[in-house]
Amino acid sequence: MALTQEEIQNLNRQFKGIPPEEIISWAINHGKKPVVTTNFRPYEVAILHAVTEVDKSIPVIWCDTGYNTPQTYKHAEELIARLGLNVKLYVPKQTSSHRDAVMGIPQIHDPLHQEFTEQVKLEPFRRAMEEHKPDVWFTNLRKGQTAHRDSLDVLSMSKDGVLKVSPFYHWSDTQLDAYLKERQLPNEHKYFDPTKVLANRECGLHT
């Protein structure tokens, strides 16, 4: 979806305080090939529920690193079944067992960490985006998660020119907890991202 930076800024001012479902409906009506990405981390159920309430058939791109916790995999299966998600699964080209034998999970200062992140997250994500070629990309980015995300807003443009839509951008954990409770949606906090090490680091998908 082609929007100028000025148009995005104007829309962000309008969208502040607007219910997520209205933002999602606007984006789907104005876009041609929307997708939503997920890794089933905590609170992902909110964006998955909100988007599929508007468009049940939207492709749900799941780039599974292969290092998720058993709790995350069970949570994912529950949400896939309950919400009827149209999941498009992308995994690394090398199994986690093979990688564990030759590389392991490198620490953040290890020169191999960049290659590890490329293998388990960036390459599968690029492959997914190249295959689906979306013009609208729904995410659950929120203000306060990282310094970089604080510089974004409800709408932002990816480096590849895809309109990123984060309907819950201004929401707090407390507000999301209430959203989930009201709709009796499950959440799961035992989540592990091997590429981040620290919770406030970016993995590279949104930078």
From TrEMBL:
<comment type="pathway">
    <text>Sulfur metabolism; hydrogen sulfide biosynthesis; sulfite from sulfate.</text>
</comment>
<dbReference type="InterPro" id="IPR014729">
    <property type="entry name" value="Rossmann-like_a/b/a_fold"/>
</dbReference>
<dbReference type="Pfam" id="PF01507">
    <property type="entry name" value="PAPS_reduct"/>
</dbReference>
<comment type="similarity">
    <text>Belongs to the PAPS reductase family. CysH subfamily.</text>
</comment>
<protein>
    <submittedName>
        <fullName>Phosphoadenosine phosphosulfate reductase family protein</fullName>
    </submittedName>
</protein>
<dbReference type="InterPro" id="IPR002500">
    <property type="entry name" value="PAPS_reduct_dom"/>
</dbReference>
<feature type="domain" description="Phosphoadenosine phosphosulphate reductase">
    <location>
        <begin position="34"/>
        <end position="187"/>
    </location>
</feature>
